[in-house]
Amino acid sequence: MEAAGAGPDMFFTQVNTPNFLDNLCRLFPGEEARLGELFPPGGAHSRLAVSLTGACLLLGPEGCSLPREARPYYCRLFPFWIRGGRQMYFESKECQALRESRGGAGLLKRLGMTETGVIELYQRLREAWGLTERR
Known about the structure:
Elements: E1 11-15, H1 18-27, H2 32-38, E2 44-48, E3 59-60, E4 63-64, H3 73-77, E5 80-83, E6 86-89, H4 96-100, H5 103-110, H6 115-128
Antiparallel strand pairs: 1-2, 3-4, 5-6
């Protein structure tokens, strides 16, 4: 990411709060024990810096300022997710791609992604976060 233009001020370390762990558990239901090991209460994790309004500092008027391949897996995957082996997408009124497309198929096309690509990114994200492969 740094080679693509994200300076060190774009990252910070945040304490693993109960709210953070609760959000992870909602993203990965049934994996609470493993998530507690990976992100223990009082521990810390690295994350992208955000503005006072919660917007990523790398987000500009045309979307992320980084090329897609330089973005973290979660950002490359967003707004898609895999739940129960099925592809879904998060509703977000701030997401430009969601506003400009009509449903999942249009969103895939708009973002230049495929269903297979979404699954592969999801698996890479799980691996990077220390979770075992799951389909």
